Structure formats: C-alpha cells, structure tokens
C-alpha cells in the first residue's frame, strides 16, 4: 500500500478548520462566564494581575486540550503541525486572552525533556506540565553571570543518590510560585566556562531554597533571587549526561524563542495600534517625526514576523537565528516604550508611583527587554563568534 499524500489544499482546509475551532472556543470561553474579566491581564511587568484566576484559566485550557499542542499524542499533545501551533498563538493573541502562567513549563522545560530527557523523566514531568498542575521557573542567571551562562558558579556535588546544590540565581521569573526549577550548575570541580555544567531538575519546596523578591521599576516583583544552601534533588534528575548541561541549556533557549514569538508579535501590534490611536487623540499625529516613528515601528513588526517565519522553516540552518530574534524584538519593544512616552508628551511624566498608567508601565518595563533573556551585548557576541566566525572578544 502506498503512502497517502496530503495535498496543499487539504492542508489549507485543515488549518482553516483548526483556526475556526480555536477562535470559536476562545470566543465562547472569554466572552462570558468566570474568565470573561481576564482579557488582557497578566504578562511582562503585570504577572501579579489575577494570578490565581489565570492559573485556573490555564488549567481550563489544559482540560479542553489546548496546551502542549505540538507534543506527541502519547505525551498528551495533539501532534499539531508548526502551522497549527502558529495559528493557535495568533488567535490567542488576537482574542486578547490572559497571559499564560505556565509558559516556562510548556514552552521551555517540556520541549527540553521531550528532546533530551529519559523515558522516566518524561513520564514523571510531562503530565504535570500539560495539566498545569506543576509550575516551573528557570535557574540560569547569577549575580556574576547575568547573561554569560558559561560563567555560572552555582555548584552541585553528587552525594550518594542525590545532588547537593549551593549557590545563587537571580532574575528568576515567577520563582515565588514555582514548584520546580531547572538549574544550570557546575558539577565538575575545577571546570571552567561551558565545560562541567549540568542541567538539574530541582524541587522548590524544600528547606535549602530561599526565594527573595526583587522590586522592579514598575513596583511589581515577578523577578526573584533564589538561594540554594545544601538544596537537594535526586541523582537521576539530571537532563542529559552530567557535564552536558551547556548543550541542553542551549536547546532550551532555542525552544524559548520559537513559535510563541508570533503571538508575542500580535500583542506588540495591538500596543502599536493603541499608541497610534492615542496619538490621534492627543494631536501628536500632527508631528511628522512622530508619524515617522510610528511608520518605522510598523515596518519593524513586519521584519520581526519575516525573521520568525524564516528561522522556523525547515530550510533554515542559521545557528544565530535565536540571537538575532532576541535582538530584533527586544530593541523594537524598548523603542515602542519610548514612542509611547513621546506621544503622551509632558503628561506622561506625571504619575502616582503606586498607580502607573499602562504606557508608563510599558516604558519602564521595556527598559529591561534588552537585558533579560540575554543582553544585547551577549547576543551580538554570539552572532559574531559562532555565526560569523569573528575572533573571540577578549575576556579577563
């Protein structure tokens, strides 16, 4: 029996049906009922908003089969195509659905375990990620290694049937609500740079872990410091081989900058449209310089989308695609925050510190966009050294 080929028209029909299905479901579940008030809530700088309600929403998504769409069906996913995953994120953003609280588990940890984890790790952790019964945080950055992951000093030593972990992580998003953390730690004594690192899965609810909130310019505290003092995790909760943590960590970063960025871009487009509407109301649109900045932002969005689609295509082998993507969206969004302030004029400078406007919060939080997740400087070094083959930057 020959292999059944699916025509382009069949694919287009299936994708259209999929788009209609998720659009109708979102409309039905967000227009009335317990989740109707959650539209537009949460997200960067606003993770404190309706957290418990958004957690319930995420679990409702899971119960309805709308989490982990690209995962294989044997692990609870839909085996959705890349196109269908893009459609989901686009429709989710268009519906102004609440920001997900399970992003780190679903978009980072889950794909990493699927790609590199053991069967036992998949059986143990994937169901909790898919159902949103276990929340995750990312233990990468450190006070002396903010964007230079290879410089981490948090250590872990194998003691019998468990790892004993000591050190500190910083800028750990949502660590205060997480059940688990994937931690990059140095497990080979005397090792340097990207050698001797391991990728450990560590339970957060234990005496050896202390979480301290970091108050941001926005007055909120979604970032945290995490201190490990003889914290422990089981010996078999290392993803990949001990010492192979660098490769696994880079895999996670690739997943982080994947399909969901297209949904992010739709949220960016909504912000830009709102700024243009604000410019019309305030008269700022009469200023040709403001018009030029709005036009440039519109063009920049198209560049973001084109790059995202290119790097997700099977034909793309650009190893620096993730770093280019981070540079593009982080700088674009920072500039958008500055544009919002320019459109408001002097009124944008008047505020109650305890009650920032949406535009003031956007401006303040986007100052961090070019730092977290890998600073601009580090991303440019990655592109220069690993893609273009330029000489390494001198390091102390």
Automatic annotation (TrEMBL):
Keyword Cell membrane on entry: no
Statement: the UniProt record of this protein carries the keyword DNA damage: no
Listed cofactors: FAD
Entry coiled-coil feature ranges: none
Taxonomic superkingdom: Bacteria
Domain annotation Acyl-CoA dehydrogenase/oxidase N-terminal: ranges: 17-131
Residues covered by the Acyl-CoA dehydrogenase/oxidase C-terminal domain: 243-388
MF terms (GO), sorted A to Z: flavin adenine dinucleotide binding; oxidoreductase activity, acting on the CH-CH group of donors
Family as reported in the entry's similarity comment: Belongs to the acyl-CoA dehydrogenase family.
Protein name: Acyl-CoA dehydrogenase
Native source organism of the sequence: Nocardia camponoti
Phylogenetic classification of the source organism: Bacteria, Bacillati, Actinomycetota, Actinomycetes, Mycobacteriales
């Amino acid at each position: 029996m020959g292999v059944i080929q699916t025509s382009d028209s069949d694919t287009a029909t299936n994708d259209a049906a999929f788009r209609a299905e998720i659009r109708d479901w979102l409309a039905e579940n967000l227009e009335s009922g317990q989740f109707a008030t959650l539209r537009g809530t949460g997200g960067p700088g606003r993770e404190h908003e309706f957290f418990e309600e958004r957690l319930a929403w995420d679990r409702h998504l899971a119960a309805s089969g709308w989490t982990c769409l690209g995962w294989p069906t044997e692990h609870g996913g839909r085996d959705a195509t890349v196109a269908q995953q893009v459609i989901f994120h686009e429709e989710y953003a268009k519906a102004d659905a609440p920001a997900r609280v399970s992003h780190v588990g679903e978009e980072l940890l889950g794909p990493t375990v699927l790609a590199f984890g053991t069967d036992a790790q998949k059986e143990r952790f994937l169901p909790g990620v898919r159902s949103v019964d276990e929340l995750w945080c990312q233990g990468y950055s450190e006070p002396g290694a903010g964007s230079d992951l290879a410089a981490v000093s948090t250590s872990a030593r194998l003691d019998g049937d468990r790892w004993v972990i000591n050190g500190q992580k910083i800028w750990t998003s949502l660590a205060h609500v997480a059940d688990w953390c994937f931690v990059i730690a140095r497990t080979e004594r005397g090792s340097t740079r990207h050698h001797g690192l391991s990728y450990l899965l560590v339970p957060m609810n234990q005496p050896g872990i202390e979480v301290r909130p970091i108050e941001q310019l926005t007055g909120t505290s979604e970032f945290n410091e995490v201190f490990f003092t003889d914290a422990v995790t089981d010996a078999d909760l290392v993803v990949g081989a001990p010492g192979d943590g660098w490769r696994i960590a880079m895999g996670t970063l690739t997943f982080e900058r994947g399909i969901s960025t297209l949904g992010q871009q739709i949220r960016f487009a909504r912000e830009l449209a709102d700024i243009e509407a604000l410019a019309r109301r305030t008269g700022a649109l009469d200023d040709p310089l403001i018009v030029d900045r709005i036009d440039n932002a519109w063009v920049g969005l198209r560049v973001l989308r084109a790059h995202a689609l290119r790097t997700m295509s099977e034909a793309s082998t650009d190893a620096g695609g993730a770093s280019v993507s981070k540079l593009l969206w982080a700088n674009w969004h920072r500039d958008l925050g500055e544009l919002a302030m320019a459109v408001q004029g002097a009124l944008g400078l008047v505020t109650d510190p305890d009650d920032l406007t949406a535009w003031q919060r956007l401006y303040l939080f986007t100052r961090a966009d070019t730092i977290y997740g890998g600073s601009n400087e580090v991303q440019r070094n990655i592109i220069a050294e690993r893609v273009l083959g330029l000489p390494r930057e001198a390091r102390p």
